[in-house]
Amino acid sequence: MFISRFPLLAKARLVWLYAALLATPACKSNAPDPVSATPVTETNVLTGSTLIGEYSTATLAGRVQGVPLAGALVKYPIRVYRLTYHTHTPDGQETTASGAVLVPVATTALPLLSYQHGTLAPSSEGQAPSYYASGSDVWSVVSVLASTGYVVSAPDYLGYGASKALPHPYEHAASLASTSADMLRAAREFCQQQSVLVNQKNFLLGYSEGGYATMALHKLLEEKYAATLPVTASAPGAGAYHKTAFARYILQATQPLSFLSSYVWVLRTYDRIYALNRPFSFYYQEPYATQLQADPFSEVPSQQSQLFATPFRQAVLNDSDVALKAALVDNDIYDWKPTAPLALFHGTADDYVPFFNSQDAYDAMQKRGATQVELHPIQGGNHFSSATAYTLGAYAFISKY
User: pLDDT band at 67, cuts 50/70/90?
Assistant: First the structure.
């Protein structure tokens, strides 16, 4: 999620996805009954598809040959397609987005799995799923995961692929959810067009920003797509679900915080989407206000007291800025009642996305009467070391349904 060294996050994504291939293969059982919800008006969203390639089981196994036993789990060849589809920007304008769909070459109806990727820096735009770049997580371990028996829908999100001219709405719950939901709709439309057999099961996985996107997607699907895209089970990992508490945590911190350059990205996103239009000097001290205005991804100090300006700090800690508080609250996705099974995974020593995000979500959901929510603390795990345990647990969790 929040991280100032994006290559490290890419490494973490690969670690947790490699681990998934060593987990128990998915079981097939009946999906839970859809929840009641007010549906949206359905229209076709798919605008195009391009075959990237077909890959044999031997080829897929070779991509993970350094991972013990992983290649042995390859079951089906897969075909990979780049899809384009209609979705909407945060301000409601229609646009074209893209993603990858990975289709096992099988004769039985398979479930769909929506995979929400983690943080991608603008310089890593070529690692977005629809490029299917050699060495990317979708090219390697996600492909092997698909080969075990899932049609994988992997949205690029806004700001990557077909929509790379747009700014990525980093950690903006509504647009991450809607873009991922529209990609899932496009994937099902594509399967229908191509006579790919799929059942009605929809699984959701993602870690870090992908975990936050997964939680937002689960909430949206139950609220708006309960009849057409019922959630079978989801397992978000290490997401910053409690944005208001996270902001206070940052501005009260006395210890170094290595993720502050990414939090700058979050603030810039919210300032733009919610039309706060605050000057950089509202958020940051000099010389960082001038520096970040020139280069939003430039280095910043790890001590929050050196980076953030007094007006911003007081606004958050005193709840004195109504518009700013509303933007943070709008991205809180911890306090709601899921119906489908949901498992929260999080390292208890996570120093990028503190564990309280998952604990708060679990407590709030329990208080609302959710009966199929589980909390899986990864004892002593930080944001990176927890990735393997997350995926082993998450894959085993969805395999029950």
Answer: low
Would you list the domain boundaries of the chain? Answer: 6-241+334-398, 243-330
CA dihedral 126, 129, 135, 138 (to 10 degrees): 170
DSSP 49: E
- Residue 256 pLDDT greater than 90, yes or no: yes
236 in helix, strand or coil?
strand
Q: How many CB atoms lie within 10 A of CB 173?
A: 22
Q: Rounded to an integer, what is the distance from CA 207 to the centroid of its chain?
A: 6
Task: Please give the C-alpha separations between residue 208 and each of 162, 172, 181, 288, 358, in angstroms, as whole numbers.
Answer: 23, 13, 18, 26, 12
Q: DSSP for 164-215?
A: TTSPP-TT-HHHHHHHHHHHHHHHHHHHHHTT--EEEEEEEEEETHHHHHHH
- Token pair for 272: 């733009």
- Above pLDDT 90, what percent of the chain? 81
CATH superfamily of 6-241+334-398: Alpha/Beta hydrolase fold, catalytic domain (3.40.50.1820)
* Contacts of residue 304, Cβ cutoff 8 Å, sequence gap at least 6: 250, 251, 253, 257, 260
CA distances from 104 to 75, 191, 204, 213 (A): 9, 11, 18, 25
Rounded to whole angstroms, how far apart are CA atoms 101 and 186? 9
The CA-atom distances, in angstroms, between 204 and each of 237, 244, 261, 318, 352 are 11, 25, 28, 37, 22
Q: Tell me if residue 262 falls in helix, strand or coil.
A: helix
Could you check whether the bond before residue 287 is cis, i.e. omega within 30 degrees of 0? yes
- Identify which of 324, 325, 344, 347 has the alpha carbon closest to the alpha carbon of residue 334: 344
